[in-house]
Write a structure and sequence with these properties.
25% of the residues lie in helices and 34% in strands. It has 163 residues and is an alpha/beta fold. A seven-stranded mixed beta sheet has the order 3-2-1-4-5-7-6. The longest helix is centred in the N-terminal third of the chain and has 13 residues, at 33-45. The protein is globular and about 40 Å long. The relative contact order is 0.15.
């Protein structure tokens, strides 16, 4: 209740709104204008007043430091034509690479990263682990939810590898 959060790639704001109910305050950002407007409407409909939504390409328009940074990225590499496509596809894993490279500048000491992932057949399931390690983060927890027999969704919790 006394911590703040940042969600990168908030989409419709569902995660930010849910987390805001338990946090001091937070910010959700997305690359898509329509997603930001939808997030604002959803927060208003839920009477959530302690979360702000901003347009940002990853951390581009973010300032401040956060106890928790959340990211549920576009999983799959695919060509994109506009910012709507970028909500679903990540050519050459650009967004995910940028996230792990820059997230440290926005984390408070002992801050936590929660990163969404899955084991779909067409993605590199080790990518977030490798990117985290390359950028000085270690896995401290892994939550999973199977989706039938086809795949599993994960939330990976990372912290700085530095003491």
């Amino acid at each position: 209740a006394d911590e703040n959060f940042l969600e990168i790639g908030c989409g419709t704001g569902v995660i930010s709104i849910a987390v805001a109910k338990r946090a001091k305050n937070g910010i959700g950002v997305d690359i898509n204008d329509k997603a930001i407007e939808n997030s604002k409407q959803n927060a208003e409909a839920q009477n959530i007043k302690n979360v702000e939504f901003l347009k940002s390409d990853v951390f581009e328009n973010v300032s401040g430091k956060f106890n928790v940074v959340i990211c549920n990225p576009p999983y799959t590499r695919h060509e994109v034509h506009d910012n709507i496509d970028r909500m679903f596809w990540d050519p050459e894993d650009e967004m995910k690479r940028k996230f792990f490279k820059e997230v440290g500048a926005f984390l408070k000491p002992n801050g936590k990263i929660y990163f969404g992932w899955a084991d779909f057949a067409d993605i590199d399931v080790d990518l977030p682990f490798n990117l985290a390690e390359e950028n000085g983060y270690k896995l401290v927890n892994k939550f999973s939810k199977p989706h039938g027999n086809d795949f599993t969704f994960y939330v990976l919790e990372f912290k700085s590898a530095q003491p």
